[in-house]
Design a protein that fits this description.
By secondary structure, the protein is α/β, with parallel strands linked by helices. The chain has helices at 7-20, 29-35, 50-62, 99-117, 137-149, 160-163, 186-193, and strands at 2-5, 43-46, 67-70, 87-88, 122-123, 127-131, 156-159, 174-178, 182-184. It has 7 helices and 9 strands, in the order βααβαββαββαβαββα. The model is unreliable at 7-17 and 198-205 (pLDDT under 50).
Protein backbone atom coordinates (compact mmCIF):
# COMPACT_ATOMS: atom_id res chain seq x y z
CA UNK A 1 0.00 0.00 0.00
CA UNK A 2 1.26 3.47 -0.89
CA UNK A 3 0.09 6.54 1.00
CA UNK A 4 0.95 10.13 0.19
CA UNK A 5 0.44 12.77 2.84
CA UNK A 6 1.55 16.19 3.94
CA UNK A 7 -0.59 16.21 7.09
CA UNK A 8 2.10 14.93 9.46
CA UNK A 9 4.74 17.38 8.28
CA UNK A 10 2.29 20.29 8.38
CA UNK A 11 1.25 19.39 11.93
CA UNK A 12 4.88 19.16 13.05
CA UNK A 13 5.85 22.48 11.45
CA UNK A 14 2.83 24.21 12.99
CA UNK A 15 3.65 22.91 16.47
CA UNK A 16 7.25 24.07 16.17
CA UNK A 17 6.04 27.50 15.05
CA UNK A 18 3.53 27.76 17.90
CA UNK A 19 6.10 26.77 20.51
CA UNK A 20 8.76 29.12 19.15
CA UNK A 21 6.30 32.03 19.37
CA UNK A 22 5.36 31.14 22.94
CA UNK A 23 6.80 32.69 26.11
CA UNK A 24 6.96 29.27 27.74
CA UNK A 25 10.30 27.55 28.44
CA UNK A 26 11.96 25.77 25.49
CA UNK A 27 10.28 22.52 24.50
CA UNK A 28 11.92 19.12 24.71
CA UNK A 29 12.21 16.94 21.63
CA UNK A 30 10.49 14.08 23.46
CA UNK A 31 7.42 16.16 24.32
CA UNK A 32 7.17 17.40 20.74
CA UNK A 33 7.44 13.85 19.44
CA UNK A 34 4.70 12.65 21.78
CA UNK A 35 2.37 15.44 20.70
CA UNK A 36 2.26 14.73 16.97
CA UNK A 37 0.12 12.04 15.29
CA UNK A 38 1.75 8.68 14.64
CA UNK A 39 1.29 6.16 11.88
CA UNK A 40 3.15 2.87 11.69
CA UNK A 41 4.33 1.80 8.23
CA UNK A 42 7.07 -0.40 6.82
CA UNK A 43 8.87 2.38 4.97
CA UNK A 44 8.88 6.16 5.10
CA UNK A 45 9.76 8.01 1.89
CA UNK A 46 10.55 11.70 2.34
CA UNK A 47 9.78 13.78 -0.74
CA UNK A 48 6.99 13.29 -3.27
CA UNK A 49 9.02 14.12 -6.34
CA UNK A 50 9.47 11.65 -9.15
CA UNK A 51 12.23 9.77 -7.30
CA UNK A 52 10.18 9.53 -4.11
CA UNK A 53 6.99 8.26 -5.73
CA UNK A 54 8.94 5.84 -7.94
CA UNK A 55 10.64 4.38 -4.86
CA UNK A 56 7.29 4.14 -3.09
CA UNK A 57 5.70 2.34 -6.02
CA UNK A 58 8.57 -0.14 -6.22
CA UNK A 59 8.34 -0.86 -2.49
CA UNK A 60 4.56 -1.22 -2.61
CA UNK A 61 3.94 -3.12 -5.84
CA UNK A 62 7.03 -5.29 -6.16
CA UNK A 63 8.01 -5.80 -2.53
CA UNK A 64 4.64 -5.74 -0.75
CA UNK A 65 5.66 -3.01 1.68
CA UNK A 66 3.30 -0.49 3.22
CA UNK A 67 4.95 2.85 2.70
CA UNK A 68 4.18 6.45 3.50
CA UNK A 69 5.35 9.34 1.31
CA UNK A 70 5.52 12.71 3.06
CA UNK A 71 6.00 16.10 1.48
CA UNK A 72 5.49 19.71 2.53
CA UNK A 73 3.60 20.45 -0.71
CA UNK A 74 -0.11 19.63 -1.12
CA UNK A 75 0.45 17.61 -4.31
CA UNK A 76 3.24 15.45 -5.67
CA UNK A 77 5.88 16.56 -8.16
CA UNK A 78 5.74 20.31 -7.60
CA UNK A 79 9.48 20.88 -7.13
CA UNK A 80 12.41 20.01 -9.37
CA UNK A 81 10.48 17.11 -10.89
CA UNK A 82 8.14 19.51 -12.68
CA UNK A 83 10.84 22.03 -13.59
CA UNK A 84 13.53 20.11 -15.41
CA UNK A 85 14.64 19.55 -18.99
CA UNK A 86 12.80 16.18 -19.22
CA UNK A 87 15.85 14.60 -20.87
CA UNK A 88 16.41 10.85 -20.80
CA UNK A 89 20.17 10.75 -20.40
CA UNK A 90 22.25 8.14 -22.19
CA UNK A 91 24.94 7.74 -19.53
CA UNK A 92 27.73 9.84 -20.99
CA UNK A 93 28.60 12.29 -18.26
CA UNK A 94 29.37 10.21 -15.18
CA UNK A 95 32.81 8.68 -14.50
CA UNK A 96 33.08 4.96 -15.37
CA UNK A 97 32.70 2.35 -12.63
CA UNK A 98 30.53 4.59 -10.47
CA UNK A 99 27.01 3.99 -9.23
CA UNK A 100 25.82 7.15 -10.98
CA UNK A 101 27.06 5.84 -14.33
CA UNK A 102 25.52 2.40 -13.76
CA UNK A 103 22.18 3.77 -12.57
CA UNK A 104 21.97 6.29 -15.41
CA UNK A 105 22.62 3.67 -18.08
CA UNK A 106 20.29 1.05 -16.58
CA UNK A 107 17.69 3.66 -15.68
CA UNK A 108 17.54 4.84 -19.28
CA UNK A 109 16.68 1.34 -20.47
CA UNK A 110 14.07 0.83 -17.75
CA UNK A 111 12.51 4.24 -18.37
CA UNK A 112 12.12 3.66 -22.10
CA UNK A 113 10.47 0.30 -21.38
CA UNK A 114 8.19 1.78 -18.73
CA UNK A 115 7.10 4.58 -21.06
CA UNK A 116 6.33 2.09 -23.83
CA UNK A 117 4.41 -0.24 -21.51
CA UNK A 118 2.35 2.58 -19.96
CA UNK A 119 1.97 4.73 -23.08
CA UNK A 120 3.81 7.69 -21.56
CA UNK A 121 4.67 10.32 -24.21
CA UNK A 122 8.38 10.09 -24.95
CA UNK A 123 10.74 10.00 -27.89
CA UNK A 124 14.26 8.73 -28.48
CA UNK A 125 15.33 11.74 -30.52
CA UNK A 126 19.06 11.63 -29.82
CA UNK A 127 21.22 14.51 -28.71
CA UNK A 128 24.05 16.59 -30.13
CA UNK A 129 26.73 17.82 -27.74
CA UNK A 130 28.65 20.51 -29.59
CA UNK A 131 32.03 22.22 -29.53
CA UNK A 132 31.63 25.81 -30.66
CA UNK A 133 35.41 26.29 -30.81
CA UNK A 134 38.54 24.17 -31.21
CA UNK A 135 39.37 24.54 -27.51
CA UNK A 136 36.23 22.56 -26.63
CA UNK A 137 36.96 19.57 -28.90
CA UNK A 138 39.07 17.72 -26.27
CA UNK A 139 36.10 17.85 -23.91
CA UNK A 140 33.96 16.07 -26.51
CA UNK A 141 36.64 13.40 -26.84
CA UNK A 142 36.60 12.87 -23.08
CA UNK A 143 32.81 12.53 -23.09
CA UNK A 144 32.86 10.05 -25.95
CA UNK A 145 35.50 7.90 -24.24
CA UNK A 146 33.57 8.04 -20.99
CA UNK A 147 30.31 7.11 -22.69
CA UNK A 148 31.87 4.11 -24.44
CA UNK A 149 33.33 2.92 -21.13
CA UNK A 150 29.86 3.23 -19.59
CA UNK A 151 28.38 1.00 -22.29
CA UNK A 152 26.60 3.68 -24.31
CA UNK A 153 26.21 2.47 -27.89
CA UNK A 154 26.14 4.43 -31.13
CA UNK A 155 28.19 7.42 -30.03
CA UNK A 156 29.71 9.18 -33.01
CA UNK A 157 31.94 12.22 -33.45
CA UNK A 158 31.12 14.34 -36.48
CA UNK A 159 32.35 17.49 -38.15
CA UNK A 160 30.35 20.64 -37.63
CA UNK A 161 29.00 20.77 -41.17
CA UNK A 162 27.61 17.24 -40.80
CA UNK A 163 25.90 18.16 -37.55
CA UNK A 164 23.96 20.84 -39.41
CA UNK A 165 22.24 18.11 -41.43
CA UNK A 166 20.56 17.12 -38.16
CA UNK A 167 20.12 20.65 -36.80
CA UNK A 168 20.48 23.31 -39.54
CA UNK A 169 20.79 26.28 -37.16
CA UNK A 170 23.83 24.88 -35.36
CA UNK A 171 27.16 26.69 -35.45
CA UNK A 172 29.91 24.38 -34.24
CA UNK A 173 33.25 22.90 -35.25
CA UNK A 174 32.52 19.37 -34.02
CA UNK A 175 29.66 17.51 -32.40
CA UNK A 176 29.15 14.30 -30.45
CA UNK A 177 26.01 12.43 -31.52
CA UNK A 178 24.25 10.39 -28.82
CA UNK A 179 21.43 8.43 -30.50
CA UNK A 180 20.05 6.82 -27.33
CA UNK A 181 19.29 10.13 -25.56
CA UNK A 182 15.66 11.18 -25.50
CA UNK A 183 12.89 13.20 -23.89
CA UNK A 184 9.89 12.29 -21.74
CA UNK A 185 6.73 14.08 -20.62
CA UNK A 186 7.35 14.21 -16.87
CA UNK A 187 3.82 15.49 -16.19
CA UNK A 188 2.44 12.27 -17.67
CA UNK A 189 5.12 10.10 -16.11
CA UNK A 190 4.61 11.18 -12.49
CA UNK A 191 0.85 10.48 -12.21
CA UNK A 192 1.41 7.02 -13.68
CA UNK A 193 3.68 6.19 -10.74
CA UNK A 194 1.03 6.97 -8.14
CA UNK A 195 -1.20 4.08 -7.09
CA UNK A 196 -4.44 6.02 -6.76
CA UNK A 197 -6.31 3.01 -5.38
CA UNK A 198 -4.19 3.22 -2.24
CA UNK A 199 -3.64 6.96 -1.92
CA UNK A 200 -4.97 9.00 0.99
CA UNK A 201 -4.52 12.27 2.87
CA UNK A 202 -2.86 14.04 -0.06
CA UNK A 203 -3.11 17.76 0.57
CA UNK A 204 -4.93 17.50 3.87
CA UNK A 205 -3.76 19.09 7.09
Amino acid sequence: MMKLTNSITKTLFQKIKNISNSSKPPFSSSSLYKSIPKEKVDCLVIGAGIVGIAIAKELSINHGREDLVVDSAPIFGTGTSSRNSEVIHAGIYYPPNTLKAAFCFRGKELLYKYCRDHEIPHKQIGKLIVATGLSEVPKLTVLMTRGIQNGVEGLRMMEGYKATTLEPELQCVKALWSPSSGIVDSHSLMPSLVDYDHTMDLGRS
